[in-house]
Amino acid sequence: MAEKDFRALYLHVPFCASKCAYCDFESAPCDRRDPLLSEYAVSVAGMVERVRSAGLLGALETAYIGGGTPTLLADGDLVRLVKISGPVGELSFEANPESLTAEKLVAAREAGATRVSIGVQSLNDRELRALGRVHTAETAIEALRLAAVSGLDVSCDLMGAIPLQTPESLRSSVRGVLGCGVGHVSVYPLQVEEGTPFGRAVDEGRMELPSTDREADAMEEAEALLRAAGFQRYEVASYALPGRDCRHNGHYWDGSAYLGLGTGAASMAHRALYERFRELAPGLPAMPDGNERARFSCTSTAPAVASAHGALEPLAWDVEFLTAGEAAAEDLMLAARTSKGIPGEQVARAGRLLGRERVLGALRGLERDGLLARVDDAWRPTERGWLLGNVVFGRLWSLASE
Amino acid sequence: MTTTDTSHIRNFSIVAHIDHGKSTISDRILELTHTVEERDMRSQLLDTMDIEQERGITIKSNAVRVMYDADDGETYQFNLIDTPGHVDFTYEVSRSLAACEGAVLVVDATQGVEAQTVSNANLAMNANLEIVPAINKIDLPSAHPDEVREEIEEELAIPAEDAVCVSGKTGEGIHDLLESIVFLVPPPEGDARAPLKALILDSYFDEYRGVVAMVRVFDGSIKKGDRLHMMQGDEDFLVDAVAVKRPAEVPVRELAVGEVGVVVTGLKDPAAVRVGDTLTYADRPCAEALPGYREAKPMVYTGIFPIDNKEYENLRDALEKLRVNDPSLVWDPETSVALGFGFRVGFLGLLHMEVVKERLEREFGLDLIATSPSVDYHVYLTDGDMVDIRSPQDLPDPSSIDHIEEPYLKAKVIVPPEFTGAVMQLAVEHRGEMADMVYLSDKSVEMHFEIPLAELILDFFDQLKSRTKGYASLDYEFDEYRPSDLVKLDILLSGDDVDALSFIVHKDKAYPLARGLCDKLKEMIPRQQFEVPIQGAIGSKIIARSTVKAVRKDVLAKCYGGDITRKRKLLEKQKEGKKRMKSIGRVEVPQEAFLAVLKVDE
C-alpha cells in the first residue's frame, strides 16, 4: 500500500476565459495573451522536472492536466505541460469547447496525450447561458466531433438539475454527446457552492436550490440512457464504455499517492514519500509522530507559482495529516464510491487497524439498509447506495473516530 | 456598624404589580441613603440574577440594610426587602412579608390598581403590615395620580390621601417616602434577652461557605460561634459568621432582635436548611416555633431532560441547589425513550417554570429540553381507586379508567371594556365558562370565569396579553376538580410511540391538536433514508397522519484529489448534526422538532 513513489500526477491550470456561475474551483478569468499564462506553464513544467530528477515520479501511471481551462494556454505551453508529464499510460487534459482547436488536439496527441475531457455541461443554449458558459451547443458538438477523430479517448462532463433544464433537455444533451462518439461521460448534479454567483443568488432568494428529488431524477435519467448505450457506471458520477474508465481518477479512490502541482492542486502521500517530497518543498511542515498520511495542496497564487521559476522552495501549502486508522477509514469511504467497491483484502486490512468487528458491523449495517451489497468478495454500492452515498461514506468515515 | 436601638429599626417590603417600578424605587432608596454611591449604581441593583436584570423582573426576594438620616436628626436602620411581582411568585412575597412590619405599596400613576396590586395588598394586610401607598411614575405625561389615589381607596380600602407621589426614574418624592416609612411603619417588637427565635426567609448555597440563610430575628440575637438549632429540620450547626447586605455582604458582630441579615451555617447539604424553619439556641430553645409559611403547591408539571444525557447527575445537583432558596420546587425522576433520563418537575405556574429552566441552563450551564406542561389529573379507575397522574405516560390503560377529573380554576381578568368580547372569546376557546362580569369603573371591567388549569398553562396568558394589547391582568386560584372528557393522544413515528409527545387533552381538541402535531413534525423531521409515517392516535385509533418522504439523493458527486478533505469535513458536519438528534426506532429526530412541537400552537 505505502508505495515509494507517486502513481499519479496532476497539473492545475488556474485560468479561464470567464468564470462560470456555479464554479468554485481554483481559477480566475484572464486574457489568453497575458504573459502570466506562459510564465506559469513554464514554471510548473520546471517543478515537474525537479520532482522527476529527485526520483519521485518513477512509478507514475497516469497524468492529468486540469483546470481552469488548460486549452486557454497557447499550443506551445499546453504541449510543454503534456510533454513534461509523460510518457505515461494515460495522460488526459481538460478542454473547453470554445478553445479546443484541431491544432491543439493534434499537438497534444503528438506530445503524448492519450485522452481529452471536454467540459460540455449541456447541449441546450439557454441552459449554457444560465450557467455562464461561453460556448454554445454547436461549438460543443463541433469540439466533440473533432476530438473523436483525433485519435484521443474522449470524455465529456454534463450537469443535471441545472436552471431551465427539463427531463427532455437532459435526455437530449446525453443523446447528443453519445452521438458524437465519446467513450466516457461524467454527469454531476448541480452543486451550489458558497461564494459563487449561484450561491449568492440562492442566499438572496433569486434562485431556488435544486431539490434532491430533481437531482435524483437527473442522475437516474442519465444513468438509464448511458447504460442503454453500453456505458457502465464505475463511480457515483462516472460512466464509461468497457475499458475506458479514467484510471487517473481511479487513483484518487484507491489510496494511491498522487502529486498535484500548481495553484490549488492537491496531493496525497504516505509518510516516507511525503518526507522525501518535503526535501524539495521545505514550506511543508514535518509529519508529526502518530500520523501516516498527508493531504496537502498548494496555496500559492498563480503569479507566485509563475515567479518561482520551477522551484518548489518558495511555495506555500495547506496540510492535513491523518493517522493510519483515519487513512484506512478514508480508503473505505473512497472505495465505496466505485463499482469495484471495497475488496475483501481491504476490509481485512482496515479491520486490523480499526477493529474487525467494527468494520464488518458497519458494512453489514449498510447492507441491511440496502446501500451496499456483497458481491463475491467485495462490498459494492447498490443502486440506492449510489444516490445515498453520503450515508455510506459518513458511516465508514466515522469508523476513524468512534 | 454600630448597633441600632430596636426603636430605630424599620423592616419593610415594597410590593407592586409587575412593571409598576418597584425595583427602580429600591434603586433610588439605595442611592439617596448613600448605601450605593451614584457611580456604582446600575439599575435594578437588588435583582442579582441575570434573568432578573434581563427581563426586568424580580424573582427572588432580597434584603438590604440601609441607614437613613431622617429629618428628625436620628439615624434609622431600614431593612428593605424586595419582592417579586408576578402571580407565580406569590409564595415568595408572603415569605418576605413575614419579616416585615410595613409594606410600601407601589401603584403606577398611569395604570392604576392592577390584579397583582390587589393580591399583594391583600397579602400585606393579612400579614398585619402597615401599608404605605406610593404612586409612581409621576414624571410621565400620562400620569393621573388623583384618579389612582381614588382607585386605591375604592378598590383596596386603603386610606390614600397621604399617598406619596414619587418617580423612581427622577428620584422625585423618594425623600418623602422615606420620611413616611419612619413615621408610619412601626418598629419591630421582641425580647433581646429571650431565647432566640429567628425565621429563615431564604437561603442559598455557596460553594465555599455552604448554606447561607437569610433570617429575621424576632427574639434574642445571633453571633458568630452560637450553636443554633433548626426546629423543623431538627439539626444543629455552629454559626460561622453573621452579616448584613448593603447590598454587598458586610460582616457584623451580631444580628440583634428585630434585625434582618444572613447567617453562614457551614452546612454542606443544600437540603438541610428549609426556608420557613425557625432558628433557636441549641442549648436554650424557645418554647414554640414561629408559624411557617403556607406551603406552596405545584400546579404545573413538566418533564425536564438534559439534551446530553451525561448531564443527568448535574441536573439533579442543580435542582437540589435551586431548591435551597426555592422550596416550592418538587421533582421525581422520569425516563423517556425519546429524551432519556430526566425529571418530572412541579412548578407554581408557567413563569416559574420558565424561570427555573432558564436558571438551570444559565447558572449551571445545562442544555435542557422541556416537555409539554401538564397538570395533576385525578384518574378514577373502574375498581373505584383514584390515581394522581402528572405525566401522560403514566395514564393507565383506557379500559381500566372510569373517568378523569381535572383541576379547574377561578380566573379573574381585569380589562378595559372594549376588550371584554375578545377575552370572552379566548375563554370559550379554552373551555372556560364565564361566571360574571363587574364594572369596576367605566374604564375597567372585572371578568370572572372558570377554566381548566390545563388550558391556562398552554398559551392562555400570551394570548390574553396579545388580544388585549397588553391591557389585561390575570389572577387565578384553584377552584375544584371536575370530570372532563379527556383522552391520551399519542404520536407515532414509523409506528413507534414517541413518549415525549403524548398529551392528555380534551376529546374535542385531540383532532386539531393531532393534525397540528403531525404537520409540524413533517416540517421539522428531515427526510431520511426511508419514508417516515407520522401518526396521531388515541389508543389504537389513528386520527391524523402525515408522511416524511424518503430522501432519494444525498451524495456529493464530485470527489477528486482536492475534494477529499473537504468531503470529509462535510461528513463530519453532518455527523455533528446527527449527534443532536434523538433516535426513535430508526427515525432520527432533531431536538428542534421536539422544541417546535412542544410549543405547537393550537
TrEMBL record, chain A:
InterPro entries: Aldolase_TIM, Coproporphyrinogen-III_oxidase, Elp3/MiaA/NifB-like_rSAM, HemN_C, HemW-like, rSAM, rSAM_sf. PROSITE patterns: RADICAL_SAM. Pfam families: HemN_C (PF06969), Radical_SAM (PF04055). The keyword Phosphoprotein does not apply. CDD domains: Radical_SAM. Residues 1-232 form the Radical SAM core domain. Keywords: Chaperone, Heme, Iron, Iron-sulfur, Metal-binding, S-adenosyl-L-methionine. It comes from the Bacteria. Gene3D superfamilies: Aldolase class I. Belongs to the anaerobic coproporphyrinogen-III oxidase family. HemW subfamily. This is Heme chaperone HemW. It comes from Kribbibacterium absianum.
From TrEMBL, chain B:
It catalyses: GTP + H2O = GDP + phosphate + H(+). Residues 7-189 form the Tr-type G domain. InterPro entries: EF-4 (IPR006297), EFG_III/V (IPR035647), EFG_V-like (IPR000640), EFTu-like_2 (IPR004161), G_TR_CS (IPR031157), LepA_C_sf (IPR038363), LepA_CTD (IPR013842), LepA_IV (IPR035654). It comes from the Bacteria. Its EC number is 3.6.5.n1. It is an enzyme of class 3 (hydrolase). It is found in: Cell membrane. GO terms for molecular function: hydrolase activity; translation elongation factor activity. Its main location: membrane. PANTHER family: TRANSLATION FACTOR GUF1 HOMOLOG, CHLOROPLASTIC, TRANSLATION FACTOR GUF1-RELATED. Required for accurate and efficient protein synthesis under certain stress conditions. May act as a fidelity factor of the translation reaction, by catalyzing a one-codon backward translocation of tRNAs on improperly translocated ribosomes. Back-translocation proceeds from a post-translocation (POST) complex to a pre-translocation (PRE) complex, thus giving elongation factor G a second chance to translocate the tRNAs correctly. Binds to ribosomes in a GTP-dependent manner. Belongs to the TRAFAC class translation factor GTPase superfamily. Classic translation factor GTPase family. LepA subfamily. This is Elongation factor 4. The lineage of its organism: Bacteria, Bacillati, Actinomycetota, Coriobacteriia, Coriobacteriales.
